[in-house]
TrEMBL record:
Signal peptide per UniProt: none
Name under which the protein is recorded: Glutathione S-transferase
PANTHER family (UniProt xref): DISULFIDE-BOND OXIDOREDUCTASE YFCG, GLUTATHIONE S-TRANSFERASE-RELATED
Coiled coil regions, renumbered to chain: none
Length: 190
């Protein structure tokens, strides 16, 4: 939704999954056999997997800097997007489930500490990368900032003893000034 708003694309949104349900319905599974959200249907073209959707939207409807003109810049954008999915996503999900979706009395402090340590190692990598850059690819925002930008909101809003990562924080505070980010990412954590 953040990506669509940045590209100024109108969308007919249907809430599915979680409290809304419907992601196991045969009609939904026929479009997305993985049964997860999101799914995008664009004039009959169906695509799922959030990062694939972001790449598709930026490729077809975006221009540089969202979809970099240079193949090597696009390669780096994909690199950071895939790195989020394969590295940071798992410990961030553990942290989110423990701190937001588990009652305080039921929380597993050992799992929380391990997830914080793992996330900190990954976020520190990005912090170092951002030392000399305003955004992930350099001077301009791009599709590379979208998956990590969503996770950065959770990282900075969940309550725990967060390590100081000043470049990461500066980058996140710039994202947090964007109206599309405020509208679609900065939502209550539930
Ligand atoms: N790798 C997938 C993950 C999809 C996924 O796990 N979606 C979750 C929400 S973040 C979902 O569909 N949850 C609803 C449910 O399982 O009922 C993607 O990025 O699209």
């Amino acid at each position: 939704m953040w990506c669509l708003a940045e590209l100024d694309i109108e969308v007919d949104r249907k809430d599915i999954g979680g409290a809304f349900g419907g992601n196991d319905a045969p009609a939904y599974r026929a479009q997305n056999p993985n049964g997860k959200i999101p799914t995008l249907i664009d004039e009959g073209y169906v695509i799922w997997e959030s990062n694939a959707i972001v790449r598709y939207l930026c490729d077809l409807y975006g221009t540089a800097p969202w979809f970099p003109a240079d193949a090597r810049q696009r390669g780096h954008a994909s690199q950071w997007m895939d790195w989020y999915q394969t590295a940071l996503h798992l410990p961030m999900t553990t942290l989110f489930w423990q701190l937001i979706r588990t009652d305080a009395a039921e929380r597993d402090q050992t799992a929380i500490n391990a997830a914080i340590a793992e996330c900190t190692g990954f976020w520190a990598m990005l912090d170092k990368h951002l030392e000399e850059r305003s955004f992930i690819l350099g001077d301009h925002i791009s599709m590379a900032d979208i998956p990590l930008g969503c996770a950065a909101y959770r990282w900075h809003r969940m309550e725990f003893d967060r390590p100081a990562l000043p470049n990461l924080r500066r980058w996140w505070e710039v994202l947090a000034k964007r109206s599309a980010y405020q509208k679609h990412v900065m939502l209550p954590l539930t």
